[in-house]
Amino acid sequence: EHRIRNFLLALLQWILLRGKRTGEIPDEINLQQVRSNIQQILIIRTGKALGDALMSLALIPECRKLFPKARVDFLLRDNISPLFREGAGVDHVLEWHPRILKWPRATLSLLRTLRGSRYDLVIACDNPFKSSFTTLCLTLFTGARHRAGFENEESRAFLNLPVSPTRDQHMVANLLRLLAPFGGTVSQTLPRFAPPSQAMEAAGRLCGLGPDDNPILIFVSNHWRKSWPLESFIRL
Asked: CB–CB of 113/136 below 8 Å?
């Protein structure tokens, strides 16, 4: 498995980066200087877990503070992306279909968008201690000059801004560490999320709430429900 992975990585690097090394890590002084030059930011989270995607929203206000003129996009798995189109506070939500053979046109369209957007900074929001190969490949495919993510066995050679996670910290604090090279700080605040009005109204009707009540979305963490589409969560 590791040999196949390393071969695919080397092939991908040769195709996308023309054989250039991916492990060149700029020093901190240069990173501080390039903050004003970052105009396009992409946050990638391709996992099924809805809760982990919600935690990733903590990065968005910090990106807005560090890069006030930058466009911020969010790439999510197709089963949860509709929930974030209105409430994530980003400029655009991109959708990843994991079943490539079933959605070939959507996949090709996404790849063209990733390559053509010329992102300056891509943040891979994987589990701090185990990265997704899909997320890392999409990160590398963008051709972004700055690629941030957690440093672990899977992510080596994909990132040039690897950040070491801390096991005794909350997931949000670890995610915010990904912006530390640019001067970001670890905050204790939780991510803010404003779900789409239609989702909230549907949840309110199912619960018998009136127009003046404020419904609360509760996400059940059973693994077998993670791949359900958004409509199933609302029905639940």
From this structure: no
Taking the whole predicted model, whether its pTM rises above 0.85 is answered as no
**What tokens were used for 143?**
């051709």
Q: Which of 31, 61, 69, 85 is nearest to 172 (CA)?
A: 61
In this structure, is the dihedral angle defined by the CA atoms of residues 200, 202, 204 and 210, taken in order, positive or negative? positive
Q: What residues form DSSP beta bridges with 95?
A: 76
pLDDT of residue 148: 93
**For residues 78 and 135, what is the distance between their CA atoms, to the nearest angstrom?**
14
Q: Is a pLDDT exceeding 90 seen at residue 40?
A: yes
Q: Where are the beta strands (DSSP E) in the chain?
A: 40-45, 71-77, 92-96, 121-124, 146-150, 161-163
For 181-212, how does the pLDDT look when each residue is reduced to its tens digit (9 = 90+)?
Answer: 888 777 666 676 766 666 666 666 666 777 67
- As a whole number, the mean pLDDT across the chain is 79
What is the number of residues in the chain? Answer: 236
Residue type, 166: T
Query: How far from 182 is each of 32, 67, 114, 144, 189, CA to CA, in Å?
Result: 6, 9, 23, 16, 19
Taking the alpha carbons at both ends of the chain, their separation in whole angstroms is 38
Contacts of 50 (CB under 8 A, 6+ apart): 80, 83, 219, 226, 233
The answer for residues whose C-beta is within 8 angstroms of residue 216's C-beta and 6 or more apart is none
- Give dist(CA 55, CA 193) in Å, integer: 10
Place of tokens 């105009």: 39
Rounded distance, CA 50 to CA 76, Å? 10
Residues 45-90: tens digit of each pLDDT: 998 888 888 889 989 989 998 998 899 999 999 888 887 887 788 9
